[in-house]
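Person: Show me a sequence?

Helper:
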Amino acid sequence: MALPKIAIIGRPNVGKSSLLNALAGSMISIVEPTAGVTRDRVGVIIEYNDSYFELVDTGGYGIVDSDELTEHIESQIAQAIGSADLILFIVDIRDGITPLDKKIAQMLRKDDLNVMMVANKADHAKIFPSAGEFARLGFGDALCISAANNINQRELVEAIIERIEHLPQDKPEKIVMQVAIVGKRNAGKSTLTNAIVGDDRVIVSEVPGTTRDAVDIRFQKDGQEFVVIDTAGVRKKNKMNDSIEFYGFVRAERSIHRADVVLLMIDSTLPVSQVDKKLAKLISTEYKACVLIINKWDLAKDKATTDDYSDYLSEVLPELKYCPIAFTTAKDEKNIQSVLDLSTEIFKQASMKISTGKLNKAIELIAAEKVGAKRKGPKFPRIYYATQVASCPITIILFVNNPDLFDETYRRFLVNRLRTLLPIAEVPINLLVRPRREKRVF
């Protein structure tokens, strides 16, 4: 898929992330008064009147990053500029031209780029004339907008499309699968993301909490379109320092919700933490297909075998004991292909539609075993028939004599047996129980 790319460039706190969110109609990038919140390239596809383009938010140019990541941020900005068909140079109309604006203009002029001046925070028409001074930067008159107050946003989009109308703007290909990578801080999520997409798409650093946004990245494999979602590292709520960490955690939760497959990344050099357990519980509650990614295995393989570690995971993360496991060294791109293969395989399982006949044959076999179920008084749990009502997650309804007889323990037993008897061994099953009076009993 080759869509025109539009990069949003500007100094810190001119409203770049607010503009991305406004044009996308969704909270894609974190917006905070604190300078330097955005670090990675955060992209979203914009559709307007059958035209399409990818809009890319970048970090503030010239930011003095508190975690000493300025060089990494500026590298991401440079990559966004280098791949862009059009630059939106964002300035703050209230501040006028600043020394940093001049520095950015000099950088953009040097490469003879296609640049559009955009004066943001023009919250009322009375200050529009103030935008005239920005013409001195060498990119023509600035278009006055207000990302926060929805002023001239449609005019901006139409101006963008006019600038890129000579480029292909085909409808994006359908996404086959969305994969979210989640885990605690410094587990290696961004390193894995870059290894999967084959590009330094997000910042990788030893500094904890480098990634703040949930970053969606499209990539192609075997001619199909996929999305990998890199998320902010999670830690305990009582250790979150500020609202930036909180919003990063919220986006990680949302990424789990919208993903087809979740990769739960665990640092093999450390004991499984409460954060790991919390994420595992969330994945289980959401009935999400999941691969457990045991990273930094090069540092732990001499201390335990893969079988030993798998047994350990079954003990500490029992709700995900059915999930496949991949042992990786993301920094060396080891075993990355198996991660993609496992993701594809379990998504295939989660998407499966099981025939009613095959499903009821499995139920009949389970009932014939006469184990797992417990009599309550004179009554014994009986299943009349079963049917699958949804995929992703696999959702099965059992029509039974009395739902009260199917306690949590028996339901878990039924789910485990269904995984054994049907080709859905590594994915969650949402088992629902409904009453029905019927003569036929297994």
